[in-house]
Design brief:
mainly beta; Methylamine Dehydrogenase, Chain H; four-stranded antiparallel beta sheet; 7 helices
Length: 537
Amino acid sequence: TAPRPFPWEPAQQAAGAGWAAPPLAAMFADGTAAGTDVESLWRSARSARCEAKSCQTGKISTVETAAQSHTCRDAGVQTDQSSDAVQDFQQEVQVDYTSLLAFLQRVEDAVIKELNKNWKSHAFDGYEVSWTDQNETVLCLHTLSYPEAQDQNLQVTGISWNATGSVVACSYGRLDDGDWSAEKSYVCTWNLDRRGLKPQRPDLVVDVPSSVMCLAFHPSRPSLIAGGLFSGELVVWDTGRTEDPVVWRTGMTDDTHTDPVYQVNWLPDGKHRSHSRLLSVSTDGKILVWREERDGRLALAEGFAIVAQQIPRSAQLKKLAWGEAAVGVTSLSFSHFDPHLFVVGVEGGYSLKCSAAAETLALPRTGSSVPLRAPAELTFSPHGGPVYSVSCSPFHNLFLSCGTDGQVHVHSLLQAQPLVSLQVSQKYLFCVRWSPVRPLVFAAASGEGNHNNRFCSTGDVHLFDFEKSSQKPALSIKQAAGERPVYCLEFNAKQTQLLAAGDAAGTVRVWQLSSAFTEQGPRELNRLEQLANETTD
């Protein structure tokens, strides 16, 4: 094979012809060549693929692993167990069955006797294990207020929880002396489950031209709330409507109360399940039931009147020193066992058992658009002054009453005399409520704290637990300092550890109750039954 010709070799010489080497001067000579630029293709390609530029080789795959085997096993001892150790272990677990049988035969009668005693014991009847953390203290979770109402020296006159138990509402007005009707007042709501709760900035503020004396949330529609005014009117607001929250109102008609409305209650409508009726109580002696109209009016559906001459006289009670006029009604509570049965408290100091099924017409006839009936069936033993609050038990045919004599009476609906009379305070008691979850627990709101010291007077919330004592409160909580009574309180039926109380300082405090006040004990219902039967014979 012919050698490869150099570039300077003529083609014909490379083909095999003889040739002579060129002179050295022709082979090597000085010269300057133009510069050239060679682009690196591998760098641009790797850069586009986000690869490292410090190496021209391909990416090396690596794997990190703690072990190369697929299975692992832990062992405390890596050596085989000796036969001596196995023999020693077997010797340790040997049982003398003959002696064991003799022992069981000796103690059999005693064990069977004790098991039969335990089988017949009722020590743990009704006991339920609680897996939740026990809360042993009562704490103030929230202190709520509306500064503009406090600047007007308005008081909290009513409190209510909505159907979900997450929203608390209060009404502002005046329960002491003053020109109440000329003052502007408010209804305020706070959602306690909302993040960023601002205690002095309510979620909703409704301006009302007259003092609001009471209020009540709808039992199943969380946004509806009804209020009774000093003017005698009833108003229903929808808290979901911020522009114009008024949904229904009575207006000022011949059917409207002529005195302030001190309590409102929602009632189911027997004819229309989707509708509700509204009951109102006033010191004009009337108990009125209102129905909703499409034009935004509340129209009178039926009503009752408490008239002195139609109140039953009990042989065990002194003759009532009332005239023939209407008797002012201050409070009302329905029985949880009979939808037609309710109890009212009146200014004369008495509590009355009433029936919504009464047919006797009230006297004298009034100018009402519907005939009013006389519902009173039984008069209970009186307090030493006006009755301000009554509350029926959710667990039995019992009710509580309190008033200006500072006493709480525990009554059976079957007899006139009280089962228990408790002197809670030397000043007024304004509100009393049964617990919705503890049959033997109730709360009372007072205008003073330590009745043994007249100069240390505060508004208190008293919590009674008859399982611990039937004579004194299990706990008294100081709500308001100075001469500032607590006017209203309400248990939360959904979030049962919460209790709200409103006072004359314009403040609503939400208390978290300890588990001792919220968890029903064994045989507690039996204890309540015993209390109810103690003096009814």
